[in-house]
Amino acid sequence: VPAGMMAHTVPKADYAVFEHHGLLDKMHQTYEYIFGVWLPENNYVMAEADSLEIYDQRFKVNEPDSVFEIWVPIKKA
Predict the structure, then answer these.
(1) CA within 13 Å, CB half, 1
(2) How many CB atoms lie within 10 A of CB 34?
(3) What pLDDT sits at residue 6?
(4) Is 39 in contact with 45 (CB distance < 8 Å)?
(5) What is the pTM assigned to this prediction?
(6) CA-CA 20 to 30 A from 3: which of 26, 44, 52, 76?
(7) What are the C-alpha distances in Å from 77 to residues 2, 13, 39, 41, 42?
(8) Average pLDDT over residues 21-30
């Protein structure tokens, strides 16, 4: 772990993984889809575990072709 950072072990959970494509100012639309459409239509709710946003080499600040992942812990409703 780099100096100045803390390690955190993410507990085991089932996750639904979504990609957000585009600028960060539209990120709310992705979250609205996840929680307002995908979870209820697929009979899931958010589980009590860590939510994650994964920013890898596909993420580009202020670029319209940017991509990052949103990991939502899930359980059947």
Answers:
(1) 6
(2) 19
(3) 95
(4) yes
(5) 0.90
(6) 52
(7) 39, 15, 9, 11, 9
(8) 97
| Sole residue written with tokens 């991509």 | 67
Q: What is the 3-state secondary structure (H, E, C) of 38-68?
A: HHHHCCEEECCCCCEEECCCCCCCCCCCCEE
Q: In this predicted model, what pLDDT tens digit does every residue of 36-68 receive, in sequence order?
A: 999 999 999 999 999 999 999 999 999 999 999
Coil vs helix vs strand at 23: coil
Strand partners for 67? 21
CA 59 from centre of chain: 13
Q: Which of the four pLDDT bands, split at 50, 70 and 90, describes residue 2?
A: very high
Place of tokens 């697929």: 42
Amino acid at 30: T
